[in-house]
Amino acid sequence: MSRDRTVRLLIATTVAVLSVASITCGGAANAAVAPSGAVPVTVLSTRAFTATGLEVRAGDTVTVHASGQIAFRPGAVAPATPAGIPWGPDCTAIAQQVVHTPWPLPGKPCWSVIGKIGSAPPFEIGRGTSFKAKAGGQLLLGINDNNVKDNVGAWTAAVTVTRPSGVPVTTVPVTTVPGAGPVTASHHSSSRLPTIAAMIAGLFVVGLLLWFVVARRRRADTPARSKPPAPVPAPEVRVPVAVAPGPPPAVALTTEGTAAVPLDPESTDVNIFRVGLPGGTSLHVGYSLFPEGTIVFWRVSREGVTRAAGSFTTEGGGGAQHFETLPLGVTIDPDEPAVDVSFSWTIGDVPFGYSVRRQPGS
How far apart are CA 107 and CA 30, in angstroms? Predict the structure, then answer.
């Protein structure tokens, strides 16, 4: 093969590898990311309520976290987060052309995320909430607005429904609710490891081709010797790897959900530095170094069987220490063997996890 032909082949290969990597990374960046164990739902601002497709039973623990922005009266009002704006004269003033239409949840923040179960009265959700269902029916998510026709956009909600037995509801049954719109839940993978591995492999091939061209040129320009010259090492290829804005996870989780490397659970060098199960009825968590608004999902299990699960939203403040006491919804006898408490969260589209073993009542 001539030198010019080799160079042309090298250029074509490099362009192909970079094109594939760009398309793959672009697709990964645009994919919606749903936290592990939660069902993502698109809450349309142009519908009073959107069906989630999740059937809730009395006694189930329901956790909802919402994010994103929508616009009502585009061009006249700033975008609204799931928290909406405080209830007051501004709500009526902005919607004065339809004041005769009742609000779904008067007295609560207008243009905020609300929900209801079946035909029961609606309740406030905002950025997020967790509650125990008193009655059964399909979970619906909507907007506290008395005129949805002039809205633009949608919110994204992460919904977790857990049975009293501790088993999360992960299936999305096909259920039609009149006037509630189609089910918009869908699952997406949040891992980018295959993409990074493909980029590394492609760049390694490019490095080998570079070494091959350089070696051929040196052999052609060097006079014959009694001993062959030492091979020229392949050039080092550095690949940028995404780094989360926060610190690394306390410990990587194995496929079974247990800690791969034991750590001191009271260390302040990790995101979560304190975990306890006081009375066997609640989960006590101490944390720091989280970006504000990070949704952390937790699970209490023994030998892979979930006893309780839920989530909470972190406060910011850098190294400031924060504490959460969360009800388990069940009672774990302190005389039972120790249980595994695992946490998972996402920072900048990068998943993290932490797991410890605790004795109930500690």
Answer: 37
Distance CA 195, CA 35 (A): 19
Element (H, E) at 194: helix 193-221
DSSP 322-340: EEEEEE-SS---TTSPPEE
- What is the number of other CB atoms lying within 10 angstroms of the CB of residue 175? 14
Find where tokens 């590394």 sit.
Answer: 200
Question: For residue 188, what are its two tokens?
Answer: 């997406």
Euclidean distance between CA atoms 34 and 64, whole angstroms:
12
**285-293 average pLDDT score:** 91
If one counts every other C-beta atom within 10 angstroms of the C-beta of residue 267, the result is 11
Report d(CA 94, CA 110) in Å as an integer: 10
Write the single-letter amino acid at 335: D
Taking the CB of residue 133, how many other CB atoms lie within 10 A of it? 18
* 55 membership: H or E segment, kind and range: strand 49-56
Distance CA 62, CA 311 (A): 10
**What is the C-alpha end-to-end distance of the chain, expressed in Å?**
72
Angle at alpha carbon of residue 223, lines to 220 and 228, rounded to 5°: 85
Per-residue DSSP letter, 268: T
* Residues 19-38: b if buried by 16+ CB within 10 A, e if exposed: eebeebbeebeeeebbbbbb
Task: Note the pTM of the prediction, 2 decimals.
Answer: 0.41
Nearest to 169 by CA among 45, 37, 289: 37
Say how far apart CA 132 and CA 282 lie, in whole Å: 15
Q: Would strands 49-56 and 137-143 be described as parallel, antiparallel, or unpaired?
A: antiparallel
- pLDDT per residue as tens digits for the range 37-85: 789 999 998 899 999 999 999 999 999 999 999 887 655 556 789 998 8
